Every structure is written in C-alpha cells, then in structure tokens.
Amino acid sequence: MSGHSVEEIRKETRVYVLVFVALAVLTLVTVGVSYLHLSFGAAVALALFIASIKGSLVAAFFMHLISEKKLVVAVLVLTAIFFVALMLLPVGGYLGRLR
Amino acid sequence: MQIPYTVEQRPDTGLYNAKLGVWLFLASEVMLFGALFSALILLRTGAATWPHGYEVLNVPLATMNTMVLITSSVSMVMSWAALRLGDFGRYRKWMGLTFVLGLVFMVIKSIEYAAKFEHHLYPSHDNFMATYFTLTGLHGLHVLGGMIVIGYLLGPGSKMWKTEPERFTNRVEVVGLYWHFVDLVWIFLFPTLYLL
Asked: Both A42 and A3 in a single domain?
C-alpha cells in the first residue's frame, strides 16, 4: 500500500480520468481509420501504432509502471525481448518467402 | 504461521510478494497470448486468401465492448484509490461497477458468438474463425476468471478490510494489475481481429 498523501491520491484519480478519455478517443480513431481502407501494410502499421499508444497508457498509468520498482521493469524488458522474438519468427519466414 | 511480506516490502525485491508474483504471472501470460498472436501472423501470411475482419465480424459490438473494458479498467483503479483513501463504501461502488462491466462484456460477447453460430460459423469453418474463437475465447475466460476474483473481493473476501486493511488494499491492487492486463490484451485483439 502506498504511503501517498490524500492530495496525491486525488491527483492520481484525475490522471486516471484523463487517461480514460484518451483511451476512448483513441478507440474511436482506430475504428475511424479502418473506414479509410488504406493499403494492408499501412492499415496494420497504423492500427498497431494506435494500439501501442493505448497499451502504453494502460501500462504506465493504470498499472502504474511509470513509478514501479526496477525489478518489475527488468522482468518486463526480458518478457518484451522474448515476445518480439516470438513475433519475428513468422514475420521473418514471410519475408523469406517473398524473396 | 503468518505469511511473510503481504504488506511490507521484501528488502531484496523492494516489493510485497504478491505484487512480484502477479507481475511474473503476467509475464507468462504475455508469452501465452504472444504464442497465439504469432500463430495468427503465421496463418495469415501463409494463407492464399484471408477475410477482412470487418467483413465477417461485428465491429460496432466489438467497439462497444472495447469501451466497456476501458471503463472497467478505470473503475478498477478507482476502487483501489478509494481504499487508499480509506473509503470502503466508495470502493464497493467502483468494484461493483467493475463487476457489472465485466458481465456486460461477457453478455455482448455471447451475443456475438450466438450470431456466428446462427450463421453456422464455427471454429472448424476456416483458419480465420478458428483464430477468432481461440483468441477471443481465451480472452473471455480471462475476463470470467477476473470476475470470479472480483466477486470474492466484493463478497466474503472483503471482510479482510476490517482486520487487515493494508493487505486487502494490496489484494485489490494485484487483481487490478491482472484486470488491466486483460484490458491491454483486448486493446491489441480488437484491431487485429476486427479491423484489419
């Protein structure tokens, strides 16, 4: 349990509301962009870019990673490395087939 | 014997045990969903044809569900903040709202599934439907699991507030981390399955 003051916690709750508004707006932007019928590559890049911003907001503020201990960040960095490797396996195969 | 480090931080990790535990669990969850996303990329890039999600799936319903889950994340974090302010009554309201929103998500998901079954679209139909049902089904199970724990923390589990308020607040924080992760997974599932 944090030793934050009442004022600090109230300030945090105001940030949560702002993050919520940002997430809602970005959701509508994601849906709106899908109606533009961009090329597949551009659509994927844009959709994942917006999703990454939304995901970062959730992780940073709702999961309070922004002020989390180094050990948690280290665990997540290690996880991210393995996750990226997992994503690159099929992408690498696909690019190899294109050659 | 008392369970150690439920409230105070372990000197070597700087965290109470449950918090480190849930982060390690979430790391394993990243790899679980990562494996399925990886399989989706493999199937999609290897397929001669693949339908656009928006042609087969119900985008307005899924958008609504995205909003529901985002709202439930805010209500979850608000319930934790209420406990940190020592306001148990407000905690119950926010946590109750989180539970209801989880239920709404599941009802909307059921409507979506029922519509697919009505059109004879089952996981066996093609690779797209198999991927859709596997990913959303696993995610739905996570929502259901979270709701069971939330229900416990609203009901019998909430008695701990009277005896060990700090430990109870930490429990809510840990469940919140799990719930936000479930929201985070949906944030990536939604565009990947429905909009591309």
From this structure: yes
